[in-house]
Amino acid sequence: MSEYERAVILRLGRLRPKPPRGPGVIFVVPCIDDITVVDIRTRSFDLDRQEILTRDMVTISIDGVVYYSIKSPFDAMLQVFDPEEATEKLAMTTLRNVAGTHKLMDLLSSKEYLSNQIEGILYNSTEPWGVRVERVEIKEIFMPDQLKRALAVEQEAMREAKAKVAAAQGERDAVKALKEAADIMETNPIALQLRYLQTLNSICNDNTRSYVFPFPVDIVRKLMK
């Protein structure tokens, strides 16, 4: 037998009380020993797409893949008729039961958490069968087209709302900064003149034909009086 195979031998219908035979050469008694070879390598099977009703009453479809291996050849042969079929059916029912307890947005945002939860349940349930579930992966969550459009509209509205909030916060910060600058300029008239010169320098360029000269506000006030 190969390195990745183990043999379980039944002699006259009774299990031989030794560890599984192999790898290497195995001697059996013809017509008396019944030998079953078990592959202990990691295998996988696909979870067919399951129709699931979520906690918030939304119908979706989920598929995935399960990786497993035979940990105990004795238990895999004596405790369950077909370990792979039993594990596959259990995985499908577990997927439906676990996903049905979550809301749609929780499933979309935390597929890894859902995979780990299903893996833990399968690991504990299949251990008496001699099966070790090594990994569970959720491949895709399918939604109706109408639901996809509704979610897209909702997300767009949320982005617009966040943009408006950010713009309002920017306006508030700008007004606060202008008020602080006005308070500083009010206490120091020279600062206001320097601001005039800075503004004039920023609006002037080589193609400008108009010239703007800042006029002191205090002189305007005296003339108005």
UniProtKB/TrEMBL annotation:
Segments forming a coiled coil: 151-178
Pfam families per UniProt: Band_7 (PF01145)
Record keywords, A-Z: Coiled coil
One GO term describing the cellular component: cytoplasmic side of plasma membrane
Keyword Cell inner membrane recorded: no
Keyword set includes Zinc-finger: no
Residue ranges occupied by any Band domain in the UniProt entry: 2-155
Family: Belongs to the band 7/mec-2 family.
Stated name of the protein: Stomatin-4 isoform X2
Species in which this protein is naturally found: Drosophila rhopaloa
Phylogenetic classification of the source organism: Eukaryota, Metazoa, Ecdysozoa, Arthropoda, Hexapoda
Gene (UniProt): LOC108042431
